[in-house]
Amino acid sequence: MYMIESKGGAIACMLLSLVFLGTWPAILTLLERRGRLPQHTYLDYTITNLLAAVLIAFTFGELGDQRPNFLDQLVHAQENWPSILYAMAGGVVLCLGNLATQYAWALVGLSVTEVISSSITVVIGTTLNYFLDDKINKAEILFPGVACFLIAVCIGSAVHASNAADNKAKLSSRIRSSIDKAGDEISAIEKGPDFDDDANNDVDASGKAKFGTVEFLLQLEKRRSIKVYGKSTMIGLAITFFAGFCFSLFSPAFNLATNDQWHALKAGVPHLTVYTAFFYFSVSCFVLAIFLNVLFLYRPVLSAPKSSFGAYLRDWDGRGWALLAGLICGFGNGFQFMGGQAAGYAAADAVQALPLVSTFWGVILFGEYRKSSKRTYVLLSGMLLMFIVAVGVLMASSGHRK
After folding, report:
1. pLDDT tens across 166-175, in order?
2. How many CB atoms neighbour CB 37 within 10 A?
3. Rounded CA separation 149/161 (Å)
């Protein structure tokens, strides 16, 4: 098997993971906004997510002369059942977190969902990993980085509240404008926040609604598969916090699977390699995802449309993108674990700065925060700044596993 042994190699894995894990949520969000049912998308996604783990296991897990390799441990799995169960438990909580974020993206937006869930992951998960890794990371560097993530989650909540208020004011101003038959101007006080929204400039020359305008918001609501207007903001935030709690547990569980800090294995039994653990981790994630999403086809949540397994099989619109998202996420998780095994899983939690990437895609693809108030822009800038500082600090805390 091939093992990452240098600090530079570990950081390279973390950076690749950061890009991949920040990109796949944008793809799934794009499909939901185009009207594809999240149940259909997630069923496709989970197939290639497992495929990525299999590819990593049969390549990196079989390269070189180091033993045990992936197939050796797969054949002798009965010796490693305690570690396998830890790995599978990690896959279960990751699956629940990913399922929850599907609906949170629709209700509170891609950027804010990723910010809050990732920050909770770091605050809880990184602390657990620090002690599980026998404190190989530098605490005086690591925990200030964790504090930056904690600040980011607070600012992220404020960003969402400010942006939601902006959108509500835009819709209210359109209603008042339509009622004002004489064309009288609405006063600045009535208008609300200091964003620029002109009802006559909602569409461009081609007739397409501009990002951030009232017309854009109305068209998006008609097209998307999860309707958000009329739903409580608190529901979206509650789902987001639940996802963050689930995410905070999957990395410590994986850490236990590969390093056996609780001495669950018999004497002389080799620890699970990162590739074998990732395989079992992904299998449990796959099985639970299939079960829950087939259930959600017939019993959807948050008023999503009903479907059936037959309708899923016939739905090819966007399937390629969903399959790509699963592959990207799978390799992103794999690279995170490879870097964590070398430099410490606490430092590898630097990949939770993935909202930097997700926010980029949110602004470019979905027009998030377009035509918002200055207050929203200031909060958004502060949130991103905290993440930039946090990822640098966590990577600087990297240690070396003996």
Report:
1. 877 776 665 5
2. 24
3. 19
